[in-house]
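Ops channel
N.P.: pipeline sanity check, posting one input/output pair.
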């Protein structure tokens, strides 16, 4: 689940590790690709065969994840339309949503005029 992925990335960055491996899932891979686009990770690869696939990531030491705020949890899910989306830390953070068009950053979803489940904020 993406909660474990983000905590592992945050802890690896703070411990000074550069390469990180986690079990593969489509949601985790989509979130990891989004983090590559916004500079939190350097690269992401899927390795292994179907039953034992892992996601191998390289943490960017120049832009570490300092904090993660989970907006939706398995017990409480939070949904917003595109009008209810806001910036994170005056534009220095990243809001991530799960939309019908896939996993998107907050400003991308606002530009596409699509809302969805608010997953987390990172900065």
């Amino acid at each position: 689940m993406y909660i474990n992925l983000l905590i592992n990335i945050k802890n690896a960055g703070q411990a000074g590790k550069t390469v990180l491996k986690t079990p593969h899932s489509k949601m985790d891979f989509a979130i990891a690709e989004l983090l590559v686009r916004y500079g939190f990770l350097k690269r992401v690869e899927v390795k292994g065969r179907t039953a034992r696939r892992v996601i191998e990531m390289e943490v960017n030491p120049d832009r570490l994840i300092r904090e993660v705020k989970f907006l939706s949890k398995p017990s409480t899910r939070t949904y917003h339309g595109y009008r209810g989306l806001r910036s994170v830390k005056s534009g220095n953070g990243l809001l991530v949503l799960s939309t019908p068009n896939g996993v998107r950053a907050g400003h991308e979803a606002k530009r596409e005029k699509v809302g969805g489940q608010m997953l987390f904020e990172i900065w």
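N.P.: looks fine end to end. The chain has two domains: 2-59, 68-122.
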